[in-house]
Structure formats: C-alpha cells, structure tokens
Amino acid sequence: MRTILRESNLDLLNEVERLISALTATPVMPELAAYHKHIVRACTEIGEQIRRNLRDLELGRDDVLPDILSDTQRLAHDLRLYNRRLASPVLRGLESDRLSLRVIGWLHAAHKKTAEIPAAISTEEFSIWPAPPYPVVYFLPASTQQGLLYQPLLFHEFGHLLYACHEPEMHSLVQDLQMRIAELLEPLARRNDVHAQAEAQQRATIVSAWYNWIQELFCDAVGLTIGGPAFIHAFDRYLRIGSRTDYHCPPDELRLCRHPVTWLRARLLARRARELGYEAIADAMERRWATIAATLGVEEDYYGFYEDEFLPVIWQTLDDMLMEAEPYRCTQRDLGEEEWTSDSTPVHLLNRAWRRFRSNPDEYSTWEHQSIMTFCATPWKCTA
Amino acid sequence: MTADWLTFQSFQRSQEVLKAINTLSVHLKLMLNGIADEERSQAAKQSVETLRAFLDEIEAAACQADRTEPALMLGVDPRFQQLVHDYLAARRRRRFRSRLFTDSIGDVKMLLNSNARSDQRALVECLAELRVLVEEHMHEDVSQVLGAI
After folding, report:
1. ipTM over 0.90
2. Would you call B35 an interface residue with chain A, using a CB distance cutoff of 8 Å?
3. Residues of chain A with pLDDT under 50
4. pLDDT for the residue numbered A198
5. What integer is the mean pLDDT of B79-91?
6. Mean pLDDT score of chain B
7. pLDDT in the model for residue A196
8. What pLDDT score was predicted for residue A224?
9. What is the pLDDT of residue A380?
10. What is the per-residue pLDDT for A192?
C-alpha cells in the first residue's frame, strides 16, 4: 500500500507542478490578476500537502496508511477541481471576458464582505460556485458574455455569494420562515390515520422546499436592488420563454425543484419592483408572463407549495435578508439619461443599454459595441 | 439559472472536514506512538476547531430532526440534511462501533480537547468512522462537480 500511495502522490505532484507552470506561463489580464494569484497559491498549497503525505509515508507506519489514502483522494479531488474547472478561466484568457469580469470586479468591490474575494467567469448556464475559500466562479452562457443585456443576471448570482457570506444570520432567518410556514400549514384538527401521515409528510416536503426557494427569491431581490430596471428586463427576457414548467410544475416535480416556479418568481419580482417605484415596468412584465401562460393554457397553481397567506412572512423574511446582506442599491444616477463615463457604475451602463435597446433596437448593436469598448478601455481599478 | 451552488458548497464542506479528519488522525496516531509531530501541531489545533463546528451543526440538526415526525430540519441545507439522515440511520442500524455512533455527540466533542491517551484512542476511532460517512456522502457532490471519467 505504501508503494501505491507513494506513486499516486508523486503523480499528483507532477500534475500540480505542470498546472502551476501552465498558470504562471499564461499572460493574465489585470481583471483576473487576483483570481490568478489565488489559484496559483492554492495549487502551491496542494503541492505542499502532497509533499507532506510523501514525508508521512517515509515514517514507515502502517497505522497512518488509511489517513494518507483518504488525504490522497481528497487532494486528487482538489487537483481535479482546479485542473478541470478553476484554472480554465485563466488558461483560456479570452479578451471578451473583460466585460463580465469588470462587472463582477466592481460588484465584489462594492461590498465589504466580498471586496477581497477573487472571481472569474466560465461558460455554462447562469450559476455560481460561491464557496470560499475556493475562488468564486460565475457561469454564464457564451453569447451573453459578449453583450450588456444579460449581465444584470450576474447580480442574482452575486446574491448567493452574499448569502454565503452572511450564512449564520441567513440560516436563522430561513429557519424562522420555515417555522412560520409550518404553522400556516398545520391543520385545524388532527387525525391519526395513514392519510394524516401522508399529509404530514407533504407538509414537511413543502417546508423543506422553502430552504432553497427563499434563497432564490432573495437573490432575485438582490438582483433588483442592485440593477434596478436593467435586472427586471434581463430577468423577463431571459426566463419568460423557458418552458412550460416555468409556468406550471406538476406536484411530483415541485418537490424536487430547487427553484420556485419561475412565474412565482416573476410575480414577486414585480411586487418588489412596484415597491421601488418601477410600476410601469412591473405591470408590463406581469402582462407578458400572463399572456404566455394563457397561450400555454396554464393556470396558476402551486399545489400548496405557495399560498397567498405565506406572502406576508415571505416578504418580511426577504426584507430582513436584504437588510442583513446590504447589497449596493441602484441610484438615481444609475438610471440617468447621460452616457456612461468612467466615474459611473456598471449599473448605469447596463440600464443605459436596456433603454437604448428598447427605444432603438436597430441601432443598438453599434451602440453596444462602442460602449463595451469604452467600458473596457478605462484603466482597471477594482474599487467601488 | 441553476442551483449548482448547493452542490458546490456541499463539496467544499466535505473537503474541509476530510482535511481536518486526516490531519488530526495522523497527528494523534503519531503522538500516541511517541512522535512529537510538531510540524502538524498548529494544523491539528485548527482541525479540532473545524471538527467541533461540524459536530455542532450535526448535533443541532439531529436534535431538530428528533423533535418532529416526520423529521424536519429548519434552516439547514438539503445536502447537509441528507448527511444528518445518514448519520442518524447509521446510529439506528448500529453500523459503526465508535463512540460517535453509540454515545452522544456532546461526549465526542469532549474528546477533541482531551489529553488522556484513552480519549485520544477513542477519538481516532470516531474520526475513522466519521470519515467513512463523509466520503460516502460526498460521492454525489463529486460526481456533479467533477463529473465521471
């Protein structure tokens, strides 16, 4: 066993040293410098831990072999993670990454809890890996990386990072919410038969679902708070044409859904948008979703996973979560008519983009191209 | 918009706990055999804190699950709930023999800071069985995060 472990650790050491060589030989754009430094340091630490395993093997003790085996497997997982997923944003080095990297860099710098967390982007459906001490990776589809219009959806993903940065407080708020929903679901009278047991199980399933659901609704609220109308437009355009299950999800599917039904998300987003004074945009979005639902022949039904009587407690929880997380708030200047300048925020640029796109779609492409060039040409300073 | 965040966070937590288990286990075994292992002593202290926090979370969630029927764990992410279910099932089925699965978690947390050799031996047994539980649990996360070859 000692020989096997020695060989495996030497293999891993060889691999990590190759990876470090590749990373250090790659030219890095300033927007990725912090991320690059972080992953080189992490890979160097993996190398040091492999060397420690090799030293432990030299002790010649059989009783530690199971520990070294487990640690070798753990390090192999970490190395595979860096090799396959976390190194690629640096190694691919696409010039077109600058746009999203600058939006994310500003976003992180604008919040005291995330200012020191390095981030990168990669290509997949919109999502995030928010698990420090690993560096944060934002995923977005290839075409959306090239333009301004769907960048606001990164603000939703940033909400997951904010949640992770405030986890104890958020868990406590979610726990209170689940308790309140459990109370609301409690029947007036209790029976003691098989049917009652099935109902109790269904209530437990609903309460459990709200762990994920409230986090997604919180992230939508974060997206709106940061991005203002640009987030509503991006959300609406990107998600409204998804699929039938975005409007209606059968009960058996609902219990497996990690997100609330998207139509419910749209409704709650519209409600918060109205609170922030974006009534016209919210009304128009709701009408569009209702039109599509009608064409699909879908009626709104969440099979008890959401009831209107849940709304006050959901709303209070979201307000409390926003207060805890304190995301950047879209300002009047971000919504101004003037063109973006280097002393303004990416939120201003993204709202300008949506106004230009909606008012003059034929000329939008030329304007967007020029705006991205200007945005990415300004000296990079990773401060809010 | 996908919910990979949950899987990735679960993967990260398992990796962190396994690192702590392995570090502390080797350290204790060497100490028990008269090897000072000063190189690892700081990391071993950090591992104790990591494991204490992890056991606190399991204890709190298990306590919630015990209080309700069907078992409910509020404010606990679904992947961690699964781990707690696995832990409770292993206890019920007497799958393991260490004190982590026969005594209370509170008792095991006491072992973390004990200098008594018998306690350290008992802790080594607990760590070995906790590692099996965590490694089995993280298989699903590894498949989703890293894929299969």
Report:
1. yes
2. yes
3. 383-384
4. 83
5. 94
6. 92
7. 79
8. 98
9. 81
10. 72
Q: Residues of B with CB below 8 A from A190's CB? A: none
Helix, strand, coil percentages (3-state) for chain B, rounded to 5, are 80, 0, 20
Residue B126 Cα, gap to closest chain A Cα (Å): 13
- Interface size A-B, in CB pairs within 8 Å, comes to 120
pTM to 2 decimals?
Answer: 0.93
Q: Examine the pLDDT at B4 and tell me if it is beyond 90.
A: no
pLDDT of residue A384: 37
> B-chain residues within 8 Å CB-CB of A258?
3, 6
Please give, one letter per residue, the 3-state secondary structure of chain A. Answer: CHHHHHHHHHHHHHHHHHHHHHHHHCCCCHHHHHHHHHHHHHHHHHHHHHHHHHHHHHCCCCCCHHHHHHHHHHHHHHHHHHHHHHCHHHHHCCCCHHHHHHHHHHHHHCCCCCCCCCEEEECCCCEEECCCCCCEEEECCHHHHCCCCCCCHHHHHHHHHHHHHCHHHHHHHHHHHHHHHHHHHCCCCCCCCHHHHHHHHHHHHHHHHHHHHHHHHHHHHHHHHHHCHHHHHHHHHHHCCCCHHHCCCCHHHHCCCCCCCHHHHHHHHHHHHHHCCCHHHHHHHHHHHHHHHHHHCCCCCCCCCCCHHHHHHHHHHHHHHHHHHCCCCCCCHHHCCCCCCCCCCHHHHHHHHHHHHHHCHHHHHHHHHHHHHHHHHCCCCCCC
Q: Do A318 and A218 contact (CB within 8 A), yes or no?
A: yes
